[in-house]
């Protein structure tokens, strides 16, 4: 973690330091978890002002405080214009002192799973740092960098965005050596307005102040050519579903509890047996292999890493109910593309198929149309039952031609699903929705914990 003097930090973030010189070991934005000798950043948000918690931070052991309020004259303070930007500035300075190879991963779908795959692969033989949880934004990622030190050989960072410019900011803090664009899909359209806006925003990862040495790009994506043009100063390694890509799978077998395929690469081929399910995870594995090959890792090392990767919680995670039904937890998040992947996955299950969904959010003016189209996809996938909650999910239920049920109250929906589970046998129940819909509540009640 960061280890600097307060005076050095003040210069790094263009702040005015007042107080006693101290060495800082670590930073925090949360007074509940702050540790002794850490620097507290008083961040602001729509519903909070961290400047107001300076006394709590002091009581809990903070060594000093970064504030942007002119009304705070406490000792041990660094005054700045904007605490969030100061956090990024400090992370940028610290990043330049770090020696690990930095890998930046972005995309509309699958970036967290891919991040876990890549970090698992490198971790087989190298000390590897990776993003924790969803610390992938303009606050979380700087905190991740500031938590690193030079004992690591690789750093795998997830980079998220909700509007143009977000990725550009992150890459100019992290300066990644290798970057990956997994895909571009209709997500966060309120901020991006269109799928073209999403694609260009993801492409920002290719055009930081420091050009990445390697760009790992999805050859299947319709925006591949755009990204190739944007990555003109990087060495491109493509991955995809067929031989048009440098790295691709052959003889794919998608089984009930695993996926297997032959991984074809410029360095040769090898059989892979994944613990992760679905074709999208086969492609994630190809992307992870591309990252490893950019660092001249062997096929055996790639195989060991991929086959050691375990499913990420809430992403097509198979669980059981007390009555033997199959519960598929895909509640981590939702957008039209990931919904389509989930539907296709459920379509291939052999049991009675039940789709439980909450609203897909942040889709802007196209949200009603996209929810109606989802109902049509469910029809074509031969889904037996649909349970929906949320104002937008009502459009999906209305366009579903079999037995569909819509609810205003999630507890009522859970009760009805539980009742159906008692009356039926051998059901596959897939649960999905945007994070704020809290669909994990359904999983918690219906599955064996």
Question: How is the topology of this model organized?
Answer:
Layout: E1 3-5, H1 6-12, E2 16-18, E3 23-25, E4 27-28, E5 39-41, E6 44-45, E7 48-49, H2 54-59, E8 64-67, E9 77-79, H3 83-95, E10 101-106, H4 111-123, E11 128-130, H5 140-146, E12 154-158, H6 166-174, E13 178-181, H7 189-192, H8 195-203, E14 214-218, H9 224-230, E15 235-239, E16 248-254, E17 259-265, E18 268-274, H10 279-294, H11 299-308, E19 317-320, E20 326-329, H12 336-347, E21 352-358, H13 367-380, E22 385-389, H14 393-398, E23 403-407, H15 410-423, E24 427-432, H16 440-446
Helix pairs in contact: 3-5, 3-6, 4-10, 4-11, 12-13, 15-16
Task: Describe what you observe in this structure.
By secondary structure, this protein is of the alpha/beta class. The chain folds into 3 domains: 3-82, Udp-n-acetylmuramoylalanyl-d-glutamate--2,6- Diaminopimelate Ligase, Chain: A, domain 1 (3-Layer(aba) Sandwich); 98-308, UDP-N-acetylmuramoyl-L-alanine:D-glutamate ligase; 317-446, Mur ligase, C-terminal domain (Protein-Tyrosine Phosphatase, Chain A, Alpha-Beta Complex). The chain is 34% helix and 23% strand. The chain is built from 16 helices and 24 strands. The protein has helices at 6-12, 54-59, 83-95, 111-123, 140-146, 166-174, 189-192, 195-203, 224-230, 279-294, 299-308, 336-347, 367-380, 393-398, 410-423, 440-446, and strands at 3-5, 16-18, 23-25, 27-28, 39-41, 44-45, 48-49, 64-67, 77-79, 101-106, 128-130, 154-158, 178-181, 214-218, 235-239, 248-254, 259-265, 268-274, 317-320, 326-329, 352-358, 385-389, 403-407, 427-432. A 6-stranded parallel β-sheet has the order 11-12-10-13-14-15, sandwiched between helices. Strands 19-20-24-21-22-23 form a 6-stranded mixed β-sheet, sandwiched between helices. A 5-stranded mixed β-sheet has the order 2-9-8-5-4. Strand 17 and strand 18 (268-274) form a beta hairpin. Helix 3 packs across helix 5. The longest helix is centred in the middle third of the chain and has 16 residues, at 279-294. The radius of gyration is 23 Å and the shape is globular. The relative contact order is 0.08. The model has no long low-confidence stretch (mean pLDDT 93).
């Amino acid at each position: 973690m960061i280890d600097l003097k307060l005076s050095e930090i003040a210069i790094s973030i263009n702040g005015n330091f007042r107080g006693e010189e101290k060495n800082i070991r670590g930073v925090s934005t949360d007074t509940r978890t702050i540790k002794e000798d850490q620097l507290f950043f008083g961040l602001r948000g729509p519903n909070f002002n961290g400047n107001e918690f300076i006394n709590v931070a002091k009581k809990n052991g903070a060594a000093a405080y970064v504030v942007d309020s002119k009304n705070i004259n406490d000792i041990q303070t660094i005054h700045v214009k904007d605490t969030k930007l100061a956090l990024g500035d400090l992370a940028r300075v610290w990043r330049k002192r770090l020696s690990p190879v930095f890998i930046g991963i972005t995309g509309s779908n699958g970036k967290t799973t891919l991040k876990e795959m890549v970090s698992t692969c490198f971790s087989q033989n190298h000390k590897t740092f990776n993003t924790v949880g969803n610390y992938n934004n303009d606050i979380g990622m700087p905190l991740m960098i500031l938590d690193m030190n030079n004992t690591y050989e690789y750093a795998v960072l997830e980079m998220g965005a909700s509007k143009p410019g977000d990725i550009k900011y992150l890459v100019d803090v992290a300066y990644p050596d290798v970057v990956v664009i997994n895909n571009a899909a209709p997500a966060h359209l309120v901020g991006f307005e269109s799928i073209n806006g999403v694609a260009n925003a993801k492409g920002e990862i290719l055009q930081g102040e420091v050009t990445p040495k390697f760009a790992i790009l999805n050859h299947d994506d319709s925006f591949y050519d755009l990204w190739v043009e944007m990555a003109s100063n990087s060495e491109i390694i493509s991955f995809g579903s067929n031989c048009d890509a440098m790295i691709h799978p052959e003889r794919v077998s998608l089984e009930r509890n695993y996926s297997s395929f032959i991984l074809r690469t410029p360095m040769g081929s090898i059989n892979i047996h994944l613990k992760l399910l679905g074709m999208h995870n086969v492609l994630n594995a190809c992307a992870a292999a591309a990252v490893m090959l950019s660092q001249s890792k062997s096929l055996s090392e790639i195989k060991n890493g991929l086959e050691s990767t375990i499913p990420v919680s809430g992403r097509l995670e198979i669980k059981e109910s007390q009555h033997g039904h199959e519960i598929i937890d895909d509640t981590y998040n939702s957008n039209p593309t990931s919904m389509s992947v989930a539907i296709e996955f459920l379509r291939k299950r052999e049991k009675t198929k039940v789709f439980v969904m909450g609203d897909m959010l942040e889709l802007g003016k196209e949200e009603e149309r996209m929810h109606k189209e989802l109902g049509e996809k469910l029809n074509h996938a031969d889904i037996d039952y649909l349970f929906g909650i949320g104002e937008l999910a009502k459009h999906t239920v209305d366009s579903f031609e079999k037995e569909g049920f819509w609810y205003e109250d999630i507890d009522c929906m859970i009760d009805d699903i539980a009742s159906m589970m008692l009356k039926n046998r051998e059901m596959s129940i897939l649960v999905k929705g945007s994070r704020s819909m809290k669909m994990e509540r359904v999983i918690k009640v219906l599955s064996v914990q």
